[in-house]
Design goal:
single chain; 492 residues; alpha+beta; BirA Bifunctional Protein, domain 2; Rossmann fold; Translation Initiation Factor IF3; 3 domains; 5-stranded mixed β-sheet; 27 strands; globular
């Protein structure tokens, strides 16, 4: 176990922070509540972003960019949306600084430079985008609009944690416009499926698809669909959301179109997004007390090669052979690094790449060259084997697929083992405190009961699963009739 990493069993929260910092994913910013995404962390985000971007574009979405600032009057137009985000908004009120006449070398806000209207730094972009769509849409021929934006947003959080909750974060937000309700709902569900596909097949994290309760849905939405994942400490994490906005934003901004019968109607809308929070989910879902564990499909480096040698002669021979190995791996599309830095010993390199979660490590020395073999170490299960160099690229290709599948199955087994039914309030409390995970329990469907459970236990309804089976029962708190179980959990 690395001396610099707090064990999960000792302090899970500190373990997570240690991994993010020691794994060189991110660092704290000089600005309170913000973070610096370091090159290794940003490379991970780029791989996630690029995969998602391809998945968005396949069904016809295109990228655009909208303003960072939203005039307060526009932000207020959709009342529920404005109310929902009001407490998290950063506001620009002035546009100029000037020298402080009473303190040489210091600056003050110029009171003469007050903006006529305050600008909200976007916490989300529905307002600025739908005010723009008004000029784009006149007829059914202008629909659908399938636009996505990669951007930063600001939500002034008081309690922050790297990647999971920061005042500024990176994300994507899709904003689509449709001629019919059915088309918009279809889009909402389709994009949720895209997110689930990505998180499960690229991040190797199993998710549950569901619908949020009215209390938990996005401010300004008719329905919010979500994917929920389970972390190793038994807490849930919302990994992505897709919102059916109805005609709410179209009505707020008077966005109408002429249909095929030349009748005017309001446009139907969706929005959907995931953020750098996914990196936090990735860390907590797979990593161990030795460091990060990264799925091969999105790992910045999939294979690292470490030479072991004595003297320049041995090094030259190893360099020549590794050059061929690297070429073979790259020809197969594998992201490989040859670490022949002579400033660090092999043992230090082994520990460093274990910390950074590189899926496969190859170690090769002079004797290995003579025997035409290489030592292969897997990060996921920490096993080692000796493999012939003949056909090494094909072997590594298959191994990376195996590691990806193994990580998913391990996480799925853990998740499935932590979905537990509770049939009484006492059982519910006991499961929350002793086992954690998702608890399937009856709820009477009222926001009052939902809020009371949250206040008493800090557990929320994570979702109503989309594949839910109707089941008559009684609410665990109120005792009133219930038609189905919902999933509760404590969460991030």
């Amino acid at each position: 176990m690395s001396k610099s990493i707090t064990p999960r069993a000792t302090d899970y929260s500190q373990w997570y922070n240690d991994l993010v910092l020691r794994g060189e994913l991110a660092d704290y910013s000089a600005v309170r509540g913000c973070m610096v995404i370091k090159p290794y962390g940003y490379a991970l985000w780029e791989n996630m972003r690029d995969a998602l971007d391809r998945m968005f574009k396949d069904p016809g979405h295109v990228n655009a960019y909208f303003a960072l600032f939203v005039p307060k009057s526009l932000f207020e137009a959709e009342e529920k949306n404005a109310e929902g985000f009001a407490k998290e908004c950063a506001i620009v009120t002035h546009y100029r600084l000037k020298s402080d006449p009473n303190n040489k070398g210091k600056l003050i806000v110029d009171p003469e430079a007050k903006l006529e209207e305050e600008l909200v730094v976007r916490p989300t972009s529905e307002a600025i985008i739908w005010s723009t769509y008004k000029g784009w849409i006149q007829s059914y021929r202008d629909l659908p609009i399938l636009v996505n934006q990669w951007a930063n947003v600001v939500r002034w959080e008081m309690r922050t944690r790297l990647f999971l909750r920061t005042a500024e974060f990176l994300w994507q937000e899709g904003h689509t416009a449709h001629a019919t309700k059915a088309e918009a709902i279809e889009e909402t569900v389709k994009m949720l499926d895209v997110y689930a596909d990505f998180v499960e097949n690229w991040m190797a994290v199993p998710v549950i698809k569901g619908v949020k309760t009215p209390n938990e849905r996005f401010a300004g939405a008719e329905d919010t669909y979500c994917i929920e994942a389970l972390m190793q400490d038994g807490k849930a994490l919302q990994a992505g959301t897709s919102h059916f906005l109805g005609q709410n934003f179209a009505k707020a901004f008077e966005v109408k179109f002429s249909d095929k019968e030349n009748k005017l109607d309001y446009v139907w809308a969706t929005s959907w997004g995931v953020s750098t929070r996914l990196i936090g989910a990735l860390v907590m879902a797979h990593s161990d007390d030795q460091g990060l564990v990264l799925p091969p499909r999105i790992a910045p480096t999939q294979v690292v090669i470490v030479p072991i040698y004595k003297g320049e002669d041995q090094k030259a021979l190893i360099d020549a052979r590794v050059e061929r190995i690297v070429s073979e791996l790259k020809a197969c599309g594998i992201r490989v690094k040859y670490d022949n830095n002579d400033q660090a010993r092999p043992g230090w390199k082994f520990a460093e790449y274990e910390m950074k979660g590189v899926p496969v490590r190859l170690a090769i020395g002079a004797r290995d060259l003579e025997n035409n073999v290489v030592e292969v170490a897997r990060r996921d299960d920490q096993t080692k084997s000796t493999v012939t160099l003949d056909g090494i690229a094909g072997h590594i290709q298959s191994l990376l697929v195996e590691i990806q599948q193994n990580l998913f199955q391990k996480a799925k087994s853990f998740r499935d083992g932590h979905i537990t039914a509770a049939n009484s309030w006492e059982e519910f409390i006991q499961l929350l405190d002793e086992k954690g995970g998702f608890i399937a329990a009856h709820w009477d469907g009222t926001p009052e009961t939902e809020e009371a459970i949250k206040e008493k236990t800090k557990a929320t309804i994570r979702c109503i699963p989309m594949n839910n089976v109707p089941e008559a029962g009684t609410c665990i708190l109120s005792g009133k009739p219930s038609t189905q179980r919902v999933l509760f959990a404590r969460s991030y």
